[in-house]
Amino acid sequence: MNGGTVPEADWFTDPHDPSLLRYWDGTAWTDRTARAPALASAAASTQHLEPSEVLGRAVAYGLLIGVVTGTASGTVAAPVLGTIVGAGVGAFVALPASLIAATFISRSVASPHYRRRVDATLLVLGIATAALAIGWISLRPLVGPWPALTMLVVVVAGLLVVRPRLRRLGAGATTSTDRADDDAER
Questions:
Q1: Which of 38, 118, 160, 162 has the highest CB neighbour count under 10 A?
Q2: Residue from 27, 3, 29 nearest 16 by CA
Q3: 8 Å CB contact between 117 and 104
């Protein structure tokens, strides 16, 4: 061992092979080795990011969903002009919505309730989108219900794709149910 104080006898990471533990007898390394425990799986399940990093990622996910949704529903309404207008409207609507949602989520990134906040926030966004689609369809627009239904399908699919990614950004799995959820989502 290097340094001024000599550590007591114990198992340490092998200085030549980090996948092994080597026994230090208090004066010298011995020939006794063992496999190092797999700590990577626990660390890989979550990425403990700062709230600002979670905020940025959540806003980016929201904008991506908004632009894809606007583009898809605009294309269904009017293939050329609808695509361009839909992308712009999608970004315009998604930016404030994703900022609000991301702020709510990022404030609890270290909380054991982080995953519940993510789920609740995404559920609210899904319900708001469904209400918007129903409102659109009830107005009986000239282009029919297909743009609204497309919007609903794309947003719900986007939220389902983003959910496991957002859940892994915060506090680690606190229960076996959370861990099972993560394993099922991978």
A1: 118
A2: 29
A3: yes
